[in-house]
Specification:
By secondary structure, this protein is of the alpha+beta class. Helices cover 26% and strands 18% of the residues. The chain has one domain. The chain has three helices and eight strands. Strand 5 and strand 6 form a beta hairpin. The structure holds zinc ion (2 copies).
Amino acid sequence: MADSRQQNPGPYDPCSVPKGGLNQQERIILPLKFICPSDCVCQSKVERIWHHKKCGNPSFITDYGDILCKNHLTDCPGYFIKDASFQCNKAAESNTWYQHKSMSQLFDALSKAIQVAENDLSDDKVIQFSKNLINQLQTRWYT
Ligand SMILES: [Zn+2]
Ligand SMILES: [Zn+2]
């Protein structure tokens, strides 16, 4: 369940956005667009768009470090990014799943996801998101 798969880039279907909308309220969520874990067989630095394996909808990351999709209030509970596995098209050939194993690797990947979102977010929101995320990851990583 805590898995995301690569899908080819395309515009987000507005229906795929979790309830509450994308950054219209207090909580900030970003489309989950980042590179594969560093041990992935593809060894690619290209950002990928990830979709929830269970339901096929786009994955999003919250400033709490949770990954969720539009069904998170019903069929698809959110999950902490540390517990998430990723499979790009290359990894799918051998049906292998990879995780971001260290916090520093994850920060690296997430900084890209935040960069991608910078065009759509005010500086305030970017700073708030990054701050919350770092705090939450540090708090939750070892628990
Ligand atoms: Zn990969
Ligand atoms: Zn889902």
